[in-house]
Amino acid sequence: MSAADSPLLSVVVPMYNEEEVIPLFIERLRPVLDTLGDSYEVLTVDDGSVDATPQLLLGLRRVWPQVRVIRLRRNSGHQAALTAGLHSARGAYVVSIDADLQDPPEKILEMLTLARARNLDIVYGVRTDRSTDTFFKRITAGLYYTVMRRCAGRAVSPNAGDFRLLSRATVDVLKTLPEHQPVYRLLVPWMGFPSGEVTYAREQRAAGRTKYPLSKMIRLALDSVTNFSASPLRLATWLGMLTFAGCLALACFSVARHLLGFTVPGWTSLFLVVLFTGGVQLVCLGLLGEYVGRIHSALQRRPAYFIAYDTADPAGASTPTVPRLPTQPDAAARNSTAAMAAPAKDGPR
Ligand code: UDP
Ligand code: MG
């Protein structure tokens, strides 16, 4: 597709095991896009689903030609799936939206109208009401955004997730950033391009269960902090200094007790000091390890994801309806097209 053929709008939808939600999502999305009165593509990124998601998406293409399917060969995480979508989207504007209908597709048109009317590069979907989220989700998300606003700046909205519109210029800049594990909800505000907001009440997941278990939430949080701040390393230094001061005081105390002849009692304090210093050292080592690990994987420059097929790719158009992923030698050759950008598994949202 040449630049002249590029659609006005690409809607990027990462999906991981969303078989229950796809029919409901399509039912809401299609009427919205059909009233657009301009060209669009719905770029679904199947993040290595192991349920009927790939079959449903390929089947959908028969009745909705604007649907494009990119399948990743393995589950690479929400942010990596977003990266795959952003790197492949061809629209003049690109909207990213979750598949579970927590973000209302009807707001896409409002975002587009606002961006065009005010010549904006970014329009954030901002949640005005998170009451449908679980208590745990609200607490972890609150904590996450408090920390991240300190690390990445006040431009990070505590209520904006990954439902947003980006202009072509913004997507092109994002594609050039060397981030190894991008966290878009921080990276996009950091860019500081002209932006606006569209507000909405966060709805409940329409079907299925969250694809963000605690492990993915922790990983997103770690990626977010290490991407934007070296403060944890400074925290390690402060902890070390505090421990040193504490140990110095205890050393004076124990020498004084020795000189006064009280040497036998003290097992408990000794035990506590050993435990405490050991704990602090381990925490500091762990923090250091997080950064070293990220430097290591950034240096390796391994792709964030591997594309099994892209229905817009002429070679991928003949992809079988039922993907035979692990044993497809021809698809392996196309893996070289996998973006070198950033992976990322994910977290508190
Ligand atoms: N997702 C994905 N890969 C993953 C996890 C999630 O592509 O490894 C997609 C998922 O299908 C959904 C979006 O990311 O479209 C957000 O996930 P979810 O709604 O489960 O997260 P939550 O809203 O519970 O934080
Ligand atoms: Mg959700």
Automatic annotation (TrEMBL):
Annotated ranges, domain Glycosyltransferase 2-like: 10-169
Any GO MF annotation of the entry: glycosyltransferase activity
Region (Disordered): 317-349
Ranges that cross the membrane: 235-256, 268-292
Coiled-coil residues: none
Membrane topology label: Multi-pass membrane protein
SUPFAM superfamilies in the record: Nucleotide-diphospho-sugar transferases
Record localization: Membrane
GO cellular component: plasma membrane
Keyword Nuclease: no
Family matches, as InterPro entries: Glyco_trans_2-like (IPR001173), Glycosyltransferase_2 (IPR050256), Nucleotide-diphossugar_trans (IPR029044)
Principal location: membrane
Alphabetically ordered keywords of this record: Glycosyltransferase, Membrane, Transferase, Transmembrane, Transmembrane helix
Low complexity composition-biased segments: 331-349
Annotated family: Belongs to the glycosyltransferase 2 family.
Protein name: Glucosyl transferase
